[in-house]
Amino acid sequence: MDERRAPGRLAVVGGPMFAGKTTELLRRVERARIAGREVLVVAHVLDTRHGSGLVASHAGARTPSRTVERAAQIPDLVGPSTVLVAVDEAQFFGLELVGVVQALADDGVDVVVAGLTVTFDARPFEPLPTLMALAEDVTRLTAVCTRCGRDAAYHVRRGDDGTGDALSSTASHVGGPESYEARCRRHRVV
Ligand code: ADP
Ligand code: MG
Fold this sequence. Notes:
19% helix; binds adenosine-5'-diphosphate; binds magnesium ion; Rossmann fold; globular
C-alpha cells in the first residue's frame, strides 16, 4: 500500500496589475479557512505597499501574512497541519520559487501562487510562465484598459519614456494606480 500522503495541487493566478489576482488569492484563502483548513499566507519583503505582515488587494480585502525574503524560507513556515500555502506577488521570488512550491505540492500541500505574468515593458515575467507550465490549474486574469476599457493583459508605468528596463529591477514593480496603469494590446504602446 502506498502510505505516502496524496500529492497536493499547484494552482497559479496570473495577470497584469489590477487584474484581481490578489482578490482571487484571498477568496481561495477564505474558502479554505471556512472549511477549517490551516492556511499559510506568504508575502515578499519587497511588497511594502500595505506595511509588512499583510496581503491586501487594490479593492481593500486583506489578510495577515508571513513575510519572507527568499522562497527557500517558505518550507520552514509550513506546519504539520498546513494544507494550503498561498503566495502573493510571486514575481518577487524569482525562479527559486519553482522548486520550493513543486516540492510542497509533491509533499501533499496545496499551493496557490498569484503574481505578475508580464513586466511593465510587456515581457514575460518569471517565475510565472514556468509555474503556469507546471501547475494543475491556471487562472489567467485580465484588468480593464485605462484608455479604452478593453481587456488589459498588460500594464505600463505611468510617465514612462520607454527606456526603463523592467527586468533589471524587480523592486520597481511595487506600486498602485499612482505608478501603473492597466493597458490593452493597442494602448500598451503609449
Ligand atoms: P492585482 O492583485 O491583480 O493587482 P487586486 O486583486 O489587488 O489586483 O485588485 C483588483 C481591483 O482593482 C479590482 O477589483 C478593481 O476594484 C481595482 N481596479 C483598479 N483599476 C483597475 C483596472 N484598470 N482594471 C481592473 N480593476 C481595477
Ligand atoms: Mg496583487
